[in-house]
Specification:
Elements: H1 2-24, H2 34-40, E1 48-49, E2 55-56, H3 59-80, H4 86-96, H5 99-108, H6 121-124, H7 128-161, H8 164-169, H9 174-184, E3 189-196, E4 204-211, E5 214-221, H10 224-238, H11 252-255
Helix pairs in contact: 2-7, 3-4, 3-7, 5-7, 9-10
Length: 257
């Protein structure tokens, strides 16, 4: 029994050393309490529980990390954009703290390679990298406090990935942009959605964007929301001038409404 405990203890030391070494390649500091990071890097499919029967996986830390990221980014934007209104700050934050961007950050850090799971990447879904990034921030907050979490978010997200000038010009939702543009120019508009039944078992939606009683663009997707966004994006490029500043030939009538 003593020999077994000794072997298990040695395995634990080796395991901790490996995790600590892997985390030091990602974090701008040396982690202290590895239990937080181990929880952040455990998938619920492992069905692990602590001595009190509580589940051990990244989801609770993901919840915590999400709140910390929003706080740090909000503070950053508040200081960097003193001229921005509350609504403008909210839009800017949404451009930074969105699922696609978080997924990209998680992928750049290769966090999934540290995940304790028996599932394949495909089984875990497209958002696993972003979820783990949030969970890692939650673990850092518990281990190093707000200052440590802020340092990590700045080093991994803000300092290396955020260009405020470009971000201000970036459109986060083409549908919202087209709605605001149409209302500002007093153009009547609507998104007309129809079920697309020409694809066997797959349920698709076809959405037409109609501006001043004229069909401007069309989007198609398995999601009505995505189809609307596609139609709006195509409408956006329809109303843009070409490189010479001239209106596109096939869209002149739409601009002259």
């Amino acid at each position: 029994m003593r020999l077994l405990k000794k072997i298990l203890g040695l395995n634990k030391i080796v395991e901790n050393h490996d995790l600590e070494r892997q985390l030091e390649n990602i974090l701008p500091f040396k982690p202290q309490n590895l239990s937080f990071y181990r929880e952040a890097l455990t998938h619920k499919a492992k069905n692990l529980k602590d001595e009190n029967g509580n589940k051990i996986n990244f989801e609770r830390l993901e919840f915590l990390g999400d709140a910390i990221i929003e706080t740090v980014v909000s503070e950053f934007l508040y200081k960097e954009l003193p001229y921005a209104t509350e609504g403008e700050l909210t839009v800017m934050r949404a451009k930074i703290v969105n699922r696609k961007h978080l997924n990209q950050l998680g992928q750049s850090l290769n966090i999934t390679e540290l995940l304790n799971t028996k599932l394949t990447q495909r089984q875990m879904g497209h958002d696993i990298s972003g979820n783990l990034y949030e969970a890692l921030v939650g673990a850092i907050f518990l281990d190093k406090g707000y200052a440590g979490a802020k340092k990590f978010i700045y080093s991994s997200m803000i300092d290396s990935h955020i260009d405020l000038e470009k971000l201000e010009k970036k459109i986060s939702s083409y549908k919202s942009f087209m709605i605001e543009w149409a209302q500002k120019n007093h153009f009547p508009f609507e998104f007309i959605a129809q079920n697309d039944t020409n694809n066997g078992k797959n349920n698709y939606f076809r959405v037409n964007f109609v501006l001043n009683n004229k069909k401007i663009s069309q989007g198609r997707s398995s999601s009505k929301k995505k189809a609307e966004e596609i139609a709006a994006r195509r409408a956006y490029y329809t109303i843009q001038p070409d490189k010479n500043g001239k209106k596109k030939e096939n869209t002149q009538t739409h601009h002259q409404i």
